[in-house]
Design goal:
single chain, 81% helix
Length: 185
Amino acid sequence: MSELGLKFFAGAAAYVVAFLTASGPLLYASHLSSTLGKYLHKEDEDGGEDEESKVSKGNRSIAIRMGARMLCQAILIRHAVFATVAVVRSLFVYRYPLTESLKLVGRSVLLIILINIMAMVSIFVAEETFKFFTKKIKEDREINKDNVAVAIFVALALLSITLVLDPGMEDFANAFISLGRSGLS
């Protein structure tokens, strides 16, 4: 196969890995963080209805908060995707011994799992810390009542915190998987 064809195939394989990472772990982590929040906050006055049901009934504020959580997790998870995509590409472009290839794939899978967990926990802790410092605003109650102003405030606070966490997550991913031979030329 020609070098151009090999790079094209490597890029296509890397895209598939990125797609699977975005559609699988990211969506699962978003759902899990929403579910975790439900069980930790008992001040829900509506009988414990889940957030997805509320969104399907038209609660814009919950949709804003869920979307912000998902966006924040995506900002952090992209570092695992970039490192994993670089590994996948390098497996096509360079000739590695089988054991080294398997180690790289294993580390990539482990990195995706670790960063998904770290992103989910980071966003959850960020949201709880924000609530601690804004005790006069009962965020969950107001968002459940569809107070869009509070939802936007919470969403922007989460995004602000995520932008500060982002370089640390990038450094963690780079330390976990070195991008020395990535096939990016």
